[in-house]
Every structure is written in structure tokens, then in C-alpha cells.
């Protein structure tokens, strides 16, 4: 089968259906050009719709065609959330896309995770990050081969008592932030992670990958951006209170949904099937 044509035929079709569809499309497409483009030819899509309809459900076909390419989508979160349920909340947006992503990932669950963020500078940000990484692992049934976290090494332009800091206040010194971040990671991953403070620029991205796929999160402003402590039982907690209770489930208030343009906090997700995937899925 023509390589370009093979990439357009949905992999989930039966072999007999794939051959029938390929033969029909070859006949149609040779009428237009011997050098047609997989991505640009609307005529190819039109031909699909005419010839594939007797074989497959049209809407299912459109969705599958979209998913078999690189999948990128963005959304705004407007709800409040418990700190260890942030990933659960994100999956409520475009659930059909998340179902597809989880199904693919669970075929090859051993992954490497990296996260770089130039903006995390509060205890709440550290807690959110550690719990977010754990929740992805648990809900997607992944096995982390490695976990690597890097935050900015720049000191912050504030002056607080870092040993008795409220959860949504900024650390004054990066060393104190680093110590707290590592304690949060220790609570969940023990010693099975790496951490460093370095020059990052404006990077804010989480990547989960292996040889078959790559899942990337791009939280606008960083993972902790837009989240605060709602007035309640956690608003008076400090880093001193959390010396032995770092794995706390904090109620987070969505500040961006209440101010600015009230759109909420933006997240962008990108899922890519890599070259080695062609014969694996």
C-alpha cells in the first residue's frame, strides 16, 4: 500500500476493510494528481467521506483521523479544586481526547517524566507539583522510570520568614524553596527522582515520554499560576505547620476565574505518537 495512503487509513479497521478502502481511494486520487499531499488535499478527505461511509461511522472516522495525528488542545479551568485532584479536573475537559491518550499510554506504561518551571516560588506550588505528578501516574497507570524536576535558581524579590510561610506566599530565598520542594517529592517518590535549580528562562512545561509517545503539559504561567488558598481551614497554615504533614490535600481557590477577564486558568496539552509507534499501535 502507498505509504502516504497507508497513513490515512485508520489502523483500527479490519484488513479487508483497509484494502477495500485503499483500492477505492487509489482509484479516486489518481484522477487528481500523482503527487498529492496527505495533509493538504481536501480532495482526499472528500474521497474518504464518499467511499468510507458504507464501511465505517462518519463521525467516528473523523474523530479517529484527528487522533491519529499529533493531538493538541487548550482549555480554561474555572473551578476550584483540591490540590491532589488537579489532574482529575483537567480530564473533565475534552474527555474523549483523554480517553484516547490514556489508552495509548497504557500500552507502554514505562515512561520518563521531566518538569521545568521558572515560576514556582510558593509552598502551594511545590505541593501542587508533587501531587500532580503522582496523580498522573496513578490515573494513567504509569511506571516512572525517572522523574526529573528543575525550577528557577533566581532568588525572589520579597522578604518573608521562610520557615513560617503561608502556603500561597513567596519564599524569599531559593534555597528554602528548594528544600521544601525536595521534601514534597521525598514524601511521594522517596529517593527516586532528581531535582535541580538552574537558569530556565520562561520555560513552564511537563513532559512524559518514552520511545513510543510524548505527552506534554503547558500550564499558562506555570503549574501554580492562578491558584490561591481560599478562606477556610488552610488559609492560616504555614510551612512550620507542615513539617510532618507535607502530603496534605489543600483546597485551592481559582483566582483567575474571579478576576482579570474571568476566563480561568489556561492549560495546553499535546500528545504525539513518535516514529517508533508506526508498527507498534
Task: Give an account of the 3D structure.
The protein has 281 residues and is α+β, with helices and mostly antiparallel strands. It has two domains: 3-67; 71-277, 2-Layer Sandwich (Endonuclease, Chain A). The chain is built from eight helices and ten strands. The strands form two sheets. A seven-stranded mixed sheet has the order 1-10-7-6-3-4-5, covered by helices on one side. It has a three-stranded antiparallel sheet with strand order 2-9-8, with no helix packed on it. Helix 7 links the parallel strand 3 (110-117) and strand 4 (143-152). Helix 2 (15-29) packs across helix 3 (42-52) and helix 7 runs parallel beside helix 8.
Please render the helix and strand layout as text.
Blueprint: H1 3-8, H2 15-29, H3 42-52, H4 58-67, E1 71-77, E2 81-82, H5 86-90, H6 95-107, E3 110-117, H7 123-140, E4 143-152, H8 174-189, E5 194-198, E6 204-209, E7 213-219, E8 227-229, E9 251-254, E10 265-273
Parallel strand pairs: 3-4, 4-5
Antiparallel strand pairs: 1-10, 2-9, 3-6, 6-7, 7-10, 8-9
Helix pairs in contact: 2-3, 7-8
Amino acid at each position: 500500500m502507498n505509504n502516504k495512503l497507508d497513513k490515512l487509513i485508520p489502523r483500527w479497521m479490519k484488513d479487508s476493510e483497509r484494502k477495500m478502502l485503499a483500492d477505492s481511494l487509489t482509484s479516486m486520487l489518481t484522477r487528481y494528481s500523482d503527487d498529492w499531499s496527505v495533509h493538504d488535499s481536501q480532495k482526499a478527505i472528500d474521497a474518504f467521506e464518499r467511499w468510507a461511509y458504507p464501511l465505517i461511522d462518519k463521525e467516528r472516522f473523523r474523530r479517529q483521523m484527528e487522533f491519529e495525528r499529533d493531538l493538541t488542545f487548550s482549555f480554561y479551568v474555572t473551578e476550584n479544586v483540591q490540590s491532589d485532584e488537579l489532574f482529575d479536573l483537567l480530564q473533565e475537559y475534552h474527555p474523549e481526547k483523554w480517553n484516547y491518550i490514556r489508552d495509548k499510554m497504557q500500552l507502554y506504561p514505562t515512561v520518563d517524566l521531566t518538569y521545568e518551571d521558572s515560576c514556582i516560588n510558593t509552598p502551594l506550588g511545590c505541593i501542587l507539583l508533587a501531587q500532580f505528578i503522582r496523580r498522573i501516574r496513578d490515573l494513567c497507570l504509569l511506571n516512572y522510570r525517572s522523574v526529573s524536576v528543575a525550577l528557577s535558581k533566581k532568588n525572589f524579590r520579597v522578604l518573608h520568614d521562610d520557615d513560617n510561610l503561608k502556603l500561597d506566599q513567596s519564599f524569599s530565598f531559593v534555597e528554602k524553596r528548594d528544600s521544601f520542594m525536595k521534601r514534597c517529592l521525598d514524601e511521594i517518590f522517596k529517593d527516586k527522582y532528581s531535582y535541580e535549580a538552574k537558569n530556565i528562562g520562561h520555560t513552564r512545561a511537563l513532559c512524559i515520554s518514552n520511545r513510543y509517545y510524548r505527552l506534554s503539559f503547558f500550564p499558562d504561567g506555570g503549574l501554580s499560576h492562578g491558584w490561591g488558598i481560599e478562606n477556610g481551614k488552610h488559609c492560616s497554615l504555614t510551612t512550620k505547620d507542615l513539617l510532618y504533614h507535607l502530603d496534605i490535600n489543600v483546597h485551592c481557590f481559582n483566582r483567575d476565574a474571579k478576576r482579570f477577564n474571568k476566563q480561568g486558568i489556561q492549560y495546553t496539552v499535546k500528545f504525539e505518537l513518535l516514529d517508533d509507534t508506526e508498527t507498534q499501535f
